[in-house]
Amino acid sequence: MTATQDWLEYAAKDFEVARPPQWRKIARPEQLAPDGIWLTWAYVAGRGAGKTRSAAEWVHEKAMLNPGVRIALVGRTPADVRDVMIEGESGIIAIAHGDAPNYQSTKRRLTWPNGSTAHTYSAEVPSQLRGPQHHFAWCDEPAAWTDAPKGDALDTAWNNLVLGLRLGQSPQCVFTTTPKPNALIRTILGRRSTVVTRGSTYDNLGNLAPSFREEVLATYEGTRIGRQELLGELLDDVEGALWTIGLLDEDRVTAPPDMRRIVVAIDPSGGSGPNNDEQGIIVAGLGIDGALYVLADRSCSLSPHGWASRAVGAYREFNADRIIAEKNYGGDMVESTIRQVDTNVPVKVITASRGKVQRAEPVAALYEQHRVHHVGAMPKLEDQMTTWTPQDGTSPDRLDALVWAVTELTDNFQAQAWIEYMRRHAEAQQVTPVEPQEQTEPAVEDPATVQQRARDAAFRAARR
Fold first, then answer.
1. d(Cα 142, Cα 154) in Å, to the nearest integer?
2. Of 196, 205, 230, 463, which cross-links 46 as Cys (Cβ 3.0–4.6 Å)?
3. CA distances from 392 to 357, 362, 384 (A)
4. Domains along the chain?
């Protein structure tokens, strides 16, 4: 019997449970669990919309009104479960007041006075959910779970949870998330056993700290990705775009490793007026792990001295190795403008010898190989990446700067790989016995051909 069939059998009898009056008085309609028969309540909303408070209230209600029930709390990581779902400002302990459960972190368990328990699980370890059975469950930010791109495939965290959600007459799960266009979200939202309520960051602005409002709204407002992060919209991929939001999210990190090399890449515009393009300024680095990391987007729309100062500031902030600038508008004036700000900063001026598409496609391929990671969110850059197509004829400034940065770092990595290959080859020649051979007159080859063949062999070896 499948989990869905289990639900249909257990949910044959619909029943209502009273909501705590104090929460009912202050909650918005979308924050209250829907009536009727459902297996999954998906509360899909922007950041700071009140999803955590809603789910915590729902869990506490279920625990208090149904003595002895067993509840699953599933988060992206163990820290997320502890710091957000249980001990967070809107978590279970904070909203429970005098009826707060006892939290035993070593046993991964909360226990209410009436015997109800909640057990914690990390989506990073789907096997934890194989076997345990539950009456109810709360899944926090499942769109960000490690195996979310797999959907509800066998032995994923979601699949194991639902197969064990079979205790009582009407097992249910609340699913709180800011949406991302991956297989799990699309699968769950498309099921008839799922009831969806939606909300946005703006719905809850009155309850958010000013610093949160300034940071989040400044980062996402006015961007396509802001529709996802603020309004809670599930975005579709743009047909023909070289990047997708899902691809960027899959390899996003919160902090980079130590860097071998860092560059600041600039794509200058032809002017500084309100109708001119922005100046793309992207900071990227090559990590000690061999991967590439996009560290910051410092793009702007300023005068030549303004954007040069901003680029030099990023160079100093990240302790970069050099500034890379495209030699388009103004020719040598690009370098001289930077020199006016700092005469000592290393500058490499590049002339585009290939078309924009030809430059961007190899960089997109590196993303597809999971060799490039974004450190945090860069909505305006990512908007250009996920909406620009080779056919639209525009000149995306931030994207151009990104391509220059990654290309520079990749070329450098290939050179290092070639040097390392030649070193190992020389060491092998020293320790490997060589049988005497008949002396023959060596063939004379063009030195450039020999050097290019060595580079090609080194690059193939590095890719392996």
1. 16
2. 230
3. 11, 19, 12
4. 3-227 (3.40.50.300), 245-410 (3.30.420.240)
